[in-house]
Amino acid sequence: MTGRIPAAYFCDRVVESKVLSQALLSQMNVVVTSPRRMGKTALVDFVFQQEVIQKDYFTIDVDILHTTCFKEFIYALGTAAYDKIASRSDKMKRLFIATLRSLSASFGYDPIQNTPTFDIKLGDITTPDYTLREIFNFMEQADKRCLVVIDEFQQITKYPEKNIEAVLRSYIQKMSNANFVFAGSQRTVLEEMFLSSRRPFFQSAKLMQLDAIELSVYQDFVVGHFREGGKDINPEAVEVAYRSFRGVTLYMQRVMKDAYATTPQGATCDERLVEQLIDDFVAENDYRIRGLLAYISEPQKEVLYAIHDEKEAQGIVSAAFTKRHRLKSPSATQSAVQKLLEDDLLTRNGKVYSLSDPLMSLWLDKNIR
């Protein structure tokens, strides 16, 4: 399923929605962490669609996973601010043009509408720090309060520029007409950013951890929707998908949607059908997963496969782990793991390591011996 999820098909997250909504309405900044594809963006979007927020706030979502430098961050933020605020009215559009003086020579013009257009290119941002200040100044002057979600916020730690965290923090802490949701899938990195007293964002936001929805909740939800459509599904079939995908929301949605579409009126979806749909889904992603594996080195693959063999691996730099999986050395393993964590192919929960993507785990089950 892509795009916005209708409320009727938004499963659970009752507590999380309430906590996030209350925090935002109380003008707090929030950090939302979870594994990839667990529903962070959908949760924020769901909360942003509440009537009280739609009526009284501008909502701005910025995904920075694709960005590699500070200038790209500013471009993404500026584009989102224009699309979600300035484009709503001529008044806001004029304010945007007047406030972003560092880009004034780069704006286009629509002769039909008799209004300026946002036609900025990445190369037009020649004074990044100053342009960022102007974007935040524009939000400060907006005629409604701004709620800004920056998705995959940990990406800023990979930028080549120095002190980006300090620069952003210096502007954000002065904002009186906006608050922020910092979302991300690398929990360890985000917790270090917001819980370490050595970092600029220390204790500047409320932390929320998004875990998998409970199996029983999923079962009730799916069975209910099947029955509304004159169909049925065995709760055990839902469990097959849940266990296979470790409760990852995006994959559950996909396979349950396929199961519903495949099950005829008056029939029952069983475990065998779900298993077949999972196999089909894994096969559909064969090219993508092979592509991901093609970009990591042989030592990294060896460590990835070793951790996959154990499902949840501990003591990965021990002599026993090294010997058991015939790895080169504990130090080589540590180096490989660090890169795999950075690339989000591995995840770490305390001292336990596992593959981030359960779909890749299923693919490895079928293709790597």
From TrEMBL:
Q: Which GO terms describe its molecular function?
A: ATP binding
Alphabetized, the UniProt keywords read:
ATP-binding, Nucleotide-binding
Q: Which residues form the ATPase domain?
A: 10-245
Extract the SUPFAM superfamilies matched here: P-loop containing nucleoside triphosphate hydrolases (SSF52540)
Asked if the keyword Protease belongs to this entry, the reply reads no
Gene3D superfamilies xref list: P-loop containing nucleotide triphosphate hydrolases
Q: What is this protein called?
A: ATP-binding protein
Q: Which organism is it from?
A: Hallella faecis
